[in-house]
Automatic annotation (TrEMBL):
It comes from Lactobacillus iners DSM 13335. The gene is yieG. This is Putative permease. GO terms for molecular function: purine nucleobase transmembrane transporter activity. Belongs to the nucleobase:cation symporter-2 (NCS2) (TC 2.A.40) family. Azg-like subfamily. GO terms for cellular component: plasma membrane. It is found in: Cell membrane. It comes from the Bacteria.
Amino acid sequence: MQILDNFFHLKKSKTSIKQEFIAALTTFVSLSYILFANPNILHDAGIDKGAAFTVTAIATAIGCFLMGIIANYPIALAPTLGSGAFFAYNVCIGMKIPWATALAAVLLASILFILITILKLREMVVDAIPQDLKYAISSGIGLFIAFIGLQSSKLIVNSNSTLVKLGSFNNPDTWVSMFGIILTVILVASRIPGSIFIGMLLTALFGIIIRQIPLPNSIVSSAPSIAPTFGKAILELKNINTTQLFMVVITFLLVTFFDTAGTLIGMTQQAGMVDKQGKIPRIGKAFLSDSLAMVEGAILGTAPLGTSVESSAGIAMGGRTGLTSILVGFLFIISLVFSSLLTVIPSTVTSPALIIVGVLMAANLKNIHWHEFEIAFPAFLIVIGMPLTYSISDGLALGMIAYPITMIAAKRYKEIPKMMYILLIIFVAFFIITNL
């Protein structure tokens, strides 16, 4: 016990092993859908689904270990659906690039990522972002998470005429989510310890009782081999030799850079790690962790890993140190054997947690100087841009481009960090490259 306290600084962080374990369980349950969603996406790109399942679990576990040990952050690193979708549908299907070559592009982008991290360029970028925009980033991620939760719960559905609309209450899945939302709201408002996790467990039980969630066919199952994907990225590096593939590498680099930076800022804000000067402790180590995680993920055979927004559920349950991340990693290793049990935790069970966490993260809106339009406008673009573009990096880019413009117009150009001008150029280029 003392060894854990000395390594993770549990007392200093005002947490305990029990609290970290509850947080880890909550993060794992919220993130467990990636074990099925990521293999489905990678399978569309031509990758063996069984191998993709095992790779997803192992790569996530290693990523969590890296974040916990190196940075001591309660944040999980896992394959992100945005990067996975870009990998499969834009690169492999759209550009007709073989999946092994696309993995090589991810690996090369990851290596560049490590170089940028060692040179502390990522730290410089984060430190240059004004505090108001950091609050906007965490709040925007909160709205984004809540929007994902509302979609997963079937309360918000697609509409051809209005893009989105209220879902049908004739859908039994909606009733499972509604039960979970109401129950979890009551538990959280009542200050019940472990409320979000308890809410997910009881919601799953309710779904089973009303026969909307099937019981697992078995308890223990063997994990498929990773042989079809392991090491293929290394063998394909020699084929990254065209302008098109170099553009793919740069795109992977830009998307993951800003996606991870935005999410890390949001998660550390939520966990109360940011000091009064707006500095994030050990941010360089956190960036190194996710850079290394991208490398190991590519070698194993998955699309880029990144900071998981679902970590916010564990942080909301009190996760404050890397022990949370490490425990999440162990749970993903265990899931390889008990994967069939995860079928009782569909998105309708985890969606209430995402909605509640979104509410908690949106609290940072109160810290933004809304009465100063030159600050309010770029902050608003970030907050509203993330859910509406369905992308943390795109929402971040909108605000970063607007900020120098509004501050110059307000004759406050002396307050603009020099790095923000560089970011303005980078983000404009980012939009041009990613939207060609």
